[in-house]
Design brief:
This protein has 657 residues and is mainly β. It is 9% helix and 32% strand. The protein contains 7 helices and 52 strands. It has an 8-stranded antiparallel sheet, covered by helices on one side. It has a 7-stranded antiparallel sheet with strand order 44-43-42-41-40-39-50, with no helix packed on it. A hairpin with an 8-residue loop joins strand 40 and strand 41. The longest helix is centred in the C-terminal third of the chain and has 14 residues. The chain is elongated, with a radius of gyration of 32 Å.
Length: 657
């Protein structure tokens, strides 16, 4: 059962809600939401006519990875709220279509969680907004529905080859053999447009190239909300909301009202009509021009621009100081390629698929070097271990388990491609344990990581950096050793007691051990070796003990009175540095309270004076994953690295046999 929380104010982020529902800042996200954003968004949808500002603050939490019930969310079945990085964050249970640019939003029905944009009805057939279709045997006649408005236009074909092939039955345009446009390769999953006319779209299917141009759909939003991004074919509506309702039977387009049966011109290219509150338009498609847009002219009263009547034809082209022969192609960058055609430079670039930013949960935005389009890619899973062992699983569940033995930390339980074991050591204490060594096994390679940054491969001590071609790399940073394997598993070890295991998404759902099963569901991470879900970390951790039990020490359960007594020294002062300006840059992204409590626990029976440093290390690494650098924290907190450990000792106390 999740803890019940509420949102408090008045401090926090402010989100304005106005009478005409200016919702551009509240587009329904698919990623995790800060709780203040989620509540502001939901409240606005529930009271569209309200004119107010909602003020709130993010709710903190300390049970990492656990579900939470939020009282002030009116439709809890639509949201799943969890504790992440010490803050309550909520995720839509259902993936909602984008409502960006829609000003004809429909309220969700009782069984729905998403707002939808108004669709269109033609000849008794309903079409969702943003859909396109043809009718009868007229493949060049295109219909588009956008926010309740139907736009009819005709395709203009463009054939960038000298010997086009006639269109197949049911197709509008002739095709070209091969899939190149102005030096740019067109693939089945990536359309290409020309820079001279961004409304031309070229697609490739089975080695045949089809290029065509169609008119932009009629927009249904106030003119003040229409934007035209540079290099894009069509203008778009910015934001979302709901218009005022026109009189019964009448139509609203933009901010103008038209009576039923009325015909009108939306612009020089567009003739529209109103019928029973629905707008249908016929828009002229302008021809594809060979001249650049800056050379095109528009005559008064005409819809389409045109090129100058006489243009010089030359056998070569000059671009950026270089001369190219007729038919020659060249690339400008990863996005743009050009060709010389009868003395004219023609360029093309891929049409990147729209990104629904921010990226979905457990993914990140990536722009691969040498590629034109950015993309959302799934993030590797990361399991963290630190201090008197505290664990944060691949799926984000946080717990403490003090067993002093050898344990299976993470393994591939489906294909058995790797295993990682840790040896936890009590280090002369009665109630505590710390990670002492790590054993990584991949195929016939075994890597052992020990105190003071010692590294062994297949039983032999090696110097870092170390490499086994195409299989294994061991490198060092200023404060860590990093082991990278060919299968994508990585281990970071600070030589004291902090370690991270990174697993690529190909292992999702097939791992087991103290780090959980990596299935994106924190609540089932306490699945023991027998496949049973338990609630307490102690029996869960003990079920993953491996090897001989001889020599294992089971620390006594913690005692609350003992913990209160041992915090009477300087523990609070040392651990409180996590809440200080030293780490202030990260406080808004990662709540330090969870790490502060772990620090106090670690200091309770600490065998040395710097046990607090492992909580600091874990906090800094979590901040780093979120893009926040804290370069001077070690100097400010006097925390040494594993490279600085004196011989004959460990960072957590005297060296043990």
């Amino acid at each position: 059962m999740g803890k019940r929380v509420s949102v408090s104010g008045p401090r926090g982020s402010r989100i304005g809600i106005t009478s005409n529902l200016k919702m551009e800042s509240r587009r329904l996200p698919s990623t995790l939401l800060a709780i203040s954003l989620a509540l502001a968004f939901l409240s606005s949808l529930g009271r569209c006519e309200a004119s107010e500002s909602i003020i709130g603050s993010r709710e903190t939490c300390d049970v990492e990875g656990e579900d939470f019930t939020v009282d002030k969310i009116p439709n809890t079945k639509c949201f799943n709220c969890i504790c992440k990085n010490g803050f309550v964050e909520c995720r839509k249970q259902q993936e909602c279509p984008s409502i960006e640019g829609c000003y004809t939003l429909l309220e969700p029905r009782e069984d729905e969680c998403c707002h939808r944009c108004k669709g269109c009805v033609r000849n008794g057939v309903y079409h969702e907004s943003e859909t396109e279709w043809t009718e009868g045997n007229e493949p060049c006649r295109i219909f588009v529905c956008k926010a309740g408005v139907i736009t009819e236009s005709r395709l203009h074909c463009y054939t960038p080859c000298s010997k086009p092939i006639p269109p197949a039955p049911g197709q509008c345009c002739p095709v070209c053999s091969g899939c190149h446009v102005n030096g740019q390769m067109v693939t089945a999953d990536r359309s290409v447009t020309t820079t001279e006319d961004p409304c031309v779209t070229c697609r490739c299917n089975a080695g045949r190239l089809t290029c065509a141009k169609q008119a932009c759909p009629v927009l249904h939003c106030p003119s003040s909300k229409i934007v035209h991004d540079p290099g894009e074919c069509c203008p778009r509506c910015k934001g979302s909301g709901r218009h005022m309702s026109p009189p019964k039977g009448a139509c609203l387009l933009g901010t103008m009202i038209y009576n039923s049966g009325k015909q009108f011109y939306a612009d020089q290219c567009t003739r529209c009509s109103c019928s029973n509150s629905a707008v249908s338009c016929v828009r002229e498609t302008c021809p594809v021009h060979d001249c650049p847009s800056e050379h095109q002219i528009v005559l008064p009263g005409r819809c389409c621009p045109q090129c100058p009547e006489v243009e010089e034809v030359r056998p070569s082209c000059t671009y950026a100081g270089k001369t190219y022969g007729d038919g020659e192609t060249w690339k400008l960058d990863s996005c743009k390629a050009c060709a010389c055609t009868q003395g004219k430079v023609r360029c093309a670039m891929p049409m990147c698929p729209p990104l629904n930013l921010p990226c979905p949960p457990n993914s990140r935005l990536e722009h691969p070097e040498g590629q034109c389009c950015p993309r959302c890619v799934e993030s590797d899973g990361v399991c963290t271990v630190f201090g008197d062992p505290h664990y944060r699983t691949f799926d984000g569940k946080f717990y403490s388990f003090k067993g002093a033995c050898k344990y299976q930390l993470a393994s591939d339980c489906a294909q058995h491609s790797f295993s990682i074991r840790v040896t936890n050591d009590a280090r002369a204490t009665r109630f505590s344990a710390w990670t002492k060594t790590i054993a990584i096994k991949v195929g016939d390679l075994k890597v052992n990581l020990g105190q003071r940054m010692r590294v062994k491969v297949n039983g032999k001590k090696v110097a870092v950096p170390y490499r086994v071609a195409n299989r294994l790399e061991v490198n060092r940073t200023a404060d860590s050793i990093i082991v990278s394997t060919e299968i994508g598993i990585k281990v970071l070890w600070d030589g004291i007691s902090f370690l991270e295991v990174s697993a690529p998404t190909s292992y999702r759902g097939q791992l087991c051990g103290l780090c959980g099963n990596f299935n994106s569901v924190p609540k089932d991470d306490f699945t023991n070796r027998r496949g049973r879900l338990v609630q307490d970390p102690q029996p869960f951790g003990q079920s993953w003990a491996v090897g001989a039990k001889k020599g294992c020490i089971r620390p006594k359960p913690g005692n609350l009175d003992r913990e209160r007594r041992c915090r009477g020294r300087k523990d609070h002062r040392l651990c409180n540095r996590l809440r200080s300006q030293i780490f202030d840059a990260c406080h808004k992204k990662v709540n330090p309270n969870m790490y502060y409590k772990a620090c106090l626990q670690d200091m309770c029976e600490c065998p040395s004076e710097n046990c607090y440093c492992e909580s600091f290390t874990a906090y800094v690494h979590e901040c780093k994953r979120l893009g926040i650098q804290l370069p001077h924290w070690r100097k400010a907190t006097r925390c040494r690295t594993g490279w600085d450990q004196p011989l004959g000792s460990t960072a957590l106390g005297p060296r043990l046999p």
